[in-house]
Amino acid sequence: MAEKDSEFFSHKIPSSFQVVEEMKELWSMALPITAMNCLVYVRAVVSVLFLGRLGSLELAGGALSIGFTNITGYSVLVGLASGLEPVCSQAYGSKNWDLLSISLQRMIFILFLAIIPISLLWVNLESIMVFLGQDIEITRMASVYCLYSLPDLLTNTLLQPLRVYLRSQGVTKPQLWCTFVAVIFHVPLNYVLVVVMGLGVPGVAMASVLTNLHMVVLLVGYVYVWGRWEWKCMAGMGGGICGGVGPLLKLAVPSCIGICLEWWWYEIVTVLAGYLPNPRLAVAATGILIQTTSLMYTVPMALSGCVSARVGNELGAGKPYKAKLAAMVALGCAFVIGFVNIIWTVMFRHKWGGLFTEDDMLKALVASVLPIIGSCELGNCPQTTGCGILRGTARPVVGARINLGSFYFVGTPVAVGLAFWFHVGFSGLWFGLLSAQAACAISILYVVLVCTDWESESLKAKKLTSLELTQKHGNDEEKGLLMKQNGHTEDVP
């Protein structure tokens, strides 16, 4: 007990050994998640390539549908599922197996309810887009893609919570391998459905749905076989699952808002680019740059999710000093990643656009803005990591407020002002993003480094994980969880 108290109130500077050990722990989780994110990115690129093979109309319609489904669907589901991070990570740290298990079930129930209004939006995509003045032919094609993507909503109600559930326990390598196996079959699926069977746009959408379904089946199989999954309280769903939805929503909704506010801002930039003097060139360049930022985002996104798990685990275990160490190490890594992004975007700015297009004007426009995008990552990496730390401490509402203020009260006015009022043009939009990321990073670093009382957060974690929304059962030996030990996963009693 004395050792625990000493660690609880410790504010000493960590030794180099402690820093290195924490870095090993963090990156042993983050590297598989980064690789998994890259595979998901590759899957999206394959879908776009097959749409492009069908023709320009199919590509435009598919692109419109992908943007619409990201805004109205996937961003919402990912955001809501991220609200599971503080509960699962802290419950795992405190060995509250019941709360960990039932929270997963509650989140699946929340997402199931969320996809009902989302599916109504997807079904009515054509009428919505026509009302907004979009081209009728492109909108009709987008509507077809969207309709055949509807089953993916149901798939994601399981996929997104499962990813958080496993990551909160440090289980990341199985996620990578399950994604790898599913993505391997993505190209053959597209070829069979699109080329052999001639299904066209519906075939591309169906291939994406089936790939996600494969991921879910593999993950469920892994958890069932190695984790002795217990679906408790399914008979008494009203009291067990539904009864605790409210407290979980208080974490899920702010998490969702924070993530959506950032995701949606990039779509706003695409719309704004359409009002510039050469809209076709500007929108095309915006598409390339957004794909570039998406690729760069794979690393900080993985780091964010893993530091959220690390911070939550240590706070749940009553070790605020180790939680603080995990946060500081992750922020240090985030700054290094940001500098790396600046270096490569400056060095390869004249060659990068050539990977996407042969148009010299488009390549020149991309090259002029790419260093700005790299500079944005110097703010984006710490900001994204900081949001993960805030989720790990069960404070997603703070991150949501910061994202709202930074992107919409700083970034948007700067982007509009520079691009249109001061006639800076296309670069002005991305200077707006730079200002938003700078404001975000400064605000989040201030909250994490100055305003966070780690001992107090540990006490809050104890209160959070003691919320017994189900009765604990006496025989803990029968409760299996996945834990990483010496490179293996095994059941922990």
UniProtKB/TrEMBL annotation:
Q: List the InterPro entries.
A: MATE_euk, MATE_fam
Q: Which residues form the signal peptide?
A: none
Q: Which residues cross the membrane?
A: 26-51, 63-84, 104-123, 176-199, 205-227, 248-266, 281-304, 325-344, 364-381, 402-423, 429-452
The alphabetized UniProt keywords are: Membrane, Transmembrane, Transmembrane helix
What GO terms are given for molecular function? antiporter activity; xenobiotic transmembrane transporter activity
Q: Where does this one sit in the cell?
A: Membrane
Q: Tell me the domain of life.
A: Eukaryota
| Chief place where the protein resides | membrane
Pfam family for this entry, one: MatE
Listed under GO cellular component are: membrane
Q: How does it sit in the membrane?
A: Multi-pass membrane protein
Which Gene Ontology biological process is one annotated for this entry?
A: xenobiotic detoxification by transmembrane export across the plasma membrane
* Family assignment from sequence similarity: Belongs to the multi antimicrobial extrusion (MATE) (TC 2.A.66.1) family.
Q: Which PANTHER family match?
A: MULTIDRUG RESISTANCE PROTEIN
* Name this protein carries in UniProt: Protein DETOXIFICATION
Source organism per UniProt: Coffea canephora (Robusta coffee)
